[in-house]
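Forum: Protein Structure Q&A
Topic: Joint prediction for protein chains with partners

I've read a bunch of threads here and the consensus seems to be that you should model interacting components together rather than docking separate models afterwards. I'd like to see that in practice. Below is the full input, 513 residues plus whatever partners are listed. Could one of the regulars post the assembled result?
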Amino acid sequence: MKIRTPVPSSLGDSLLQRSARRSLAGEIAVLDNTKPGFAEVANAVLEALVGADATRRRGLYVTKGNPTRPAEEPDYERLSSGAVAVLVGAGDCGACTSWSVYDAVELANRGVWTVYVCTEIFAPLARSIAEPRNRGNLDIVVIPHPLAASSEELGAAALTVASRMEMLATSEAA
Amino acid sequence: VELVEIADDPRAAWLEIEERGWGDGLPCVPPVAALVEDMLAGADPDEIVANLPPSGADATLGLIAVNTVMAGCLSGVLPAVAASVRAAADPRFNLLAVQTTTNPATEVVIVNGPARSSLGLVSGASCLGNGASANRTLGRAVRLSLMNIGGARPGKADRATHGFPGKVSLCFSEAEEASPWEPLHARQLPAEMSAVTVVAGSGTLNLMDMASDAEELLRGMAGALAFSMSNDVVYGGTPVLVIGPDHARVLGEAGLSRKDVQSFLFEHATVRASSLSAENRGFIAGVRSDQYPAIRSDTAIGVTKRPDDILLVVAGAMGPHTVLIPSYGDSRAVTVPIA
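Posted by a regular:
Agreed with the consensus. Here's the joint model:
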């Protein structure tokens, strides 16, 4: 028999948005969604990156009021106008991943290099949120799950993020 | 809406629909063209009802009609399903979070007004359980629409750690005639209108109390509403009390208004901060800082931000029971008319 499909046939043309130039020479900002452990990771990443090169500086550190809602518009503007890179995190549950990827897409759309951090379990969800918003090229750094781990594990996660950002900064944006 | 060829055998057809990822685990009605046309009843299939996350796809009446047929709904239900989808897409409902959270959250659909009888909905015995086919299929149609059009498949974008059986379908109508108060939708719309209210629920818990004293009954309800690992405590949510007619009568005969009940529960449904984990206390300090600027171990944390966020709905059959539907927390109830 022939049936009607219950799903959309197409979401229309997926026009991949151009990414900003990757660079760490300047202010590196953070959008923190308050998930336990991310502040430790983000601060360790900043310390590692800024300590490695005199051209790098700590930029704005914005903490969202609620991880399961989007950041405020003025925060997107402040973060994207002064920084060369914004670190956004962290996704380690469903709704917090969805809304923090949404934040990362909003920042990337404003022309700032945006790096998104999530745990391995939630990376597929993060990609599924970014892709229909024409940001399949969002730089996503995956760390072990769960995020709220021991200080040693958080330190290791920070090293992963920092080294990945160093590597990305020397490669061409997608 | 595209056409695809599937097996003619009913069981094989269902299994093929499941394999394609369009089902919810239970047998469904194959949405053949004639049934979909009948469901549309002349409505424009290209009319956009809402844009749904996480897929970002437009939910057209045509796609909703296909999902409504699959759910087993009879004709005439489409406006109620479409209204529910529209309500769930309202930003206040926070559908992106509800669709993708690890919480078992789902949309609870509550129907008020004349549509209750015209759609054959049940507000009495087993209104949340088996047998109430109009309730079950309407709720299922809404979930299938949000899953298939919104792209929230279990284990994929839908990250629910466990889910719960109500995530297949959770819909009922209010027993307005047994209520001592105005119907639920009258908080926003004329009482004579038909309307749906969607609220993000995370399970059901039966509350049994044979109390004949209204204050004792309310103290019992308050004790059940607030528990230490509750999303309502964490966020300040929108829990629903589905109050059985016997309990409603006790409250009504005591002369308590809806507002009186909500105020009492708001004041008494609290947990001590000392009973919460350090992580949950820290989370509350962030998301509820307006309400609790300084949390000490003896701070009493309530389940909502405002008294009227405790939703009171009368439904069920006689018996000393009320059902608590704890909420997802970071979502507000949305009421819209059934067009």
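Residues 108 and 336 of chain B are 14 Å apart (CA to CA).
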